[in-house]
From TrEMBL:
<dbReference type="InterPro" id="IPR005543">
    <property type="entry name" value="PASTA_dom"/>
</dbReference>
<protein>
    <recommendedName>
        <fullName>PASTA domain-containing protein</fullName>
    </recommendedName>
</protein>
<keyword id="KW-0812">Transmembrane</keyword>
<keyword id="KW-0472">Membrane</keyword>
<feature type="transmembrane region" description="Helical">
    <location>
        <begin position="49"/>
        <end position="70"/>
    </location>
</feature>
<keyword id="KW-1133">Transmembrane helix</keyword>
Length: 165
């Protein structure tokens, strides 16, 4: 019988040796161990961290936009009122947006502009009263109640006093 003739098993000696070598290799190596629970936990933690990072970035970007619009950075500044008007009485502190409350000064603004600021801050406009105050521009904001150092939050009502002239 020649070395390349078929054996009773139906394989050549080379094929039999190859099959034996593959079987030995397959049975001798350990199967890899996968920590599927750990992989799932890491994936979820990474996903959560990524989502939290994006949410924080959006909040910071949105908060920055809200701060810029609340302070009137995009608007032309109103002419300052005369020195007899107390800025602290026409300023309210808006809380709940950032760690520290944001001071919003309405001194010298007309009623329409003040209403716009209240809408942006999601505050309710309460009573509007005209008072006489020396050295103020007629129909401009002289005082808001509550004013600083009290803090107002979203949904609170703010009363306004306007200059009668």
């Amino acid at each position: 019988m020649s070395p390349y003739e078929l054996r009773p098993s139906g394989c050549t000696p080379f094929e039999e040796e190859l099959i034996d070598a593959m079987n030995n290799f397959a049975h001798s190596t350990n199967a890899p161990a996968f920590d599927t629970a750990g992989m799932v936990h890491r994936t979820r933690r990474r996903r959560t961290t990524l989502i939290a990072g994006f949410a924080a970035a959006l909040i910071v970007a949105g908060g920055g936009t809200a701060l810029a619009s609340m302070t009137g950075a995009s608007q032309t500044p109103a002419k300052p009122a005369a020195t007899t008007v107390d800025h602290n009485r026409a300023t309210f502190l808006l809380g709940g947006l950032t760690k520290e409350p944001i001071a919003v000064d309405l001194t010298g603004m007309d009623l329409a502009t003040a209403k716009g600021q209240f809408l942006k801050a999601q505050l309710k406009l309460g009573t509007i009263v005209k008072v006489t105050s020396p050295g103020c521009k007629p129909t401009s904001v002289v005082e808001v109640i509550p004013h600083s150092p009290k803090i107002v939050s979203k949904g609170d009502t703010v009363n306004v006093k306007l200059c009668a002239g």
